[in-house]
Amino acid sequence: xxxxxxxxxxxxxxxxxxxxxxxxxxxxxxxxxxxxxxxxxxxxxxxxxxxxxxxxxxxxxxxxxxxxxxxxxxxxxx
Length: 78
Description:
This is 9168_t:CDS:1. By secondary structure, the protein is mainly alpha-helical. It has one domain (2-75). It has helices at residues 2-18, 25-36, 41-64, 69-75.
């Protein structure tokens, strides 16, 4: 549950920073890789698991083209 909450928070920050939907899967993964370099120590420990979950969330969002943050979170449940 802690990991899920952490990923949810990260995902909202990621979406807010971009202020728009991802146009392609490549854009999403490229941005995620850049963002991963700014993680704290705790984030670095969780990075392998977080990357997997975040990519699953981004892929789900790309497939369903969800518009609202609430729907995006529901589509991204791990």
